[in-house]
Amino acid sequence: MVGILRGIASGMKYLSDMSYVHRDLAARNILVNSNLVCKVSDFGMSRVLEDDPEAAYTTRGGKIPIRWTAPEAIAYRKFTSASDVWSYGVVMWEVMSYGERPYWDMSNQDVIKAIDEGYRLPPPMDCPVALHQLMLDCWQRERADRPKPSTTLLEPGSPEAASSSVGTVEDWLQAIGMEKYRDNFTAAGYTSPEAVVHMTQEDMGRIGISSSAHQNKILTSVQGMLSQMQQMQGRMVPV
Fold first, then answer.
1. Does the pLDDT at position 55 exceed 50?
2. Exposed end of the chain (fewer CB within 10 Å): N or C?
3. Radius of gyration (C-alpha) of the chain in whole angstroms
4. Phi, psi (5° rounding) for residue 238?
5. What's residue 135's pLDDT?
6. Do residue 140 and residue 218 come from a single domain?
7. Considering only CA atoms, which of 140, 149, 162 is closest in space to residue 215?
8. Helix ranges (DSSP H) in 35-121
9. Which pLDDT belongs to residue 30?
10. What are phi and psi of 25, to 5 degrees?
């Protein structure tokens, strides 16, 4: 299932790189072949954006797939690559829940109200914590706090991948899109992965990382790093 999600993410990264916003990303619009290779389809609502990462497409009318759509796109009809990332989080939930309907039998109005009050879909049964955390990252209220299309569950940018291949703290922060905190880590003495893996949320606040979204993203990756180190130690046997 993670392979399926990576395939969808790869397709969405391609669209973003080509300056397209899909506007209707959902499991129903993913084509799957006999080898489980996935392709994003149904471009009836797609639009070309300006060559600008902050560009938005504003629509004046037409139906919006509420359960898959970011709050700002519902409220102001502004669609960006960041609103596609929100939709990708819902697709992740659909896949990991084996095709359940997002928000179940809630009405569209109830969904809008719940999201506005901070409700987010809970983890599907047996869903790994890291995957649900990535969904929550995709569902950040502020679009700037969501993962970029280039880092959503793709090899170099996903927290779990970054944690397994990191060489230095600077490389790790860059891999998870948190390089702006490089000086914070250095000044506080967190200069090696071995030191970083023991950090807590209180430590994050102490070194100047005040955004809860950024704290959660960093901690998720830290937990992945720690898990990787423990697995490697478990495989080491005396000669």
1. no
2. C
3. 19
4. -65, 145
5. 93
6. no
7. 140
8. 71-76, 81-96, 108-116
9. 95
10. -75, 125
Confidence grade of residue 45 (pLDDT, cut at 50, 70, 90): low
Partner residues linked to 30 by β-bridges: 40
Written as six digits, the tokens of 115 are: 């999201």
Q: Which residues contact 236 (CB under 8 A, 6 or more apart)?
A: none
Which residue segment(s) compose the domain that 204 sits in?
A: 159-235
Tokens 């179940």 — which residue? 104
Sequence-distant contacts of 107-111: CB under 8 A, at least 24 apart:
108/66, 108/67, 111/66, 111/67
Is there a single domain that holds both residue 34 and residue 94? yes
* Distance (Å) of CA 92 to CA 44, 107, 223: 22, 21, 21
Cα-to-chain-centroid distance, residue 147: 5
Name residue 119's amino acid: Y
Residue whose pair of structure tokens reads 């471009």 in the numeric block: 43
Within a domain: 36: yes
**What is the per-residue pLDDT across 175-213, written as a single tens digit (0 to 9) for each?**
777 889 999 999 999 988 888 888 888 999 999 999 888
Shared-domain flag, residues 107 and 177:
no
**Does residue 205 contact residue 181 with C-beta atoms inside 8 Å?**
no
Q: Which is more confidently placed, 205 or 56?
A: 205
Mean pLDDT of the chain: 81
How far apart CA 197 and CA 222 sit, in angstroms, is 5
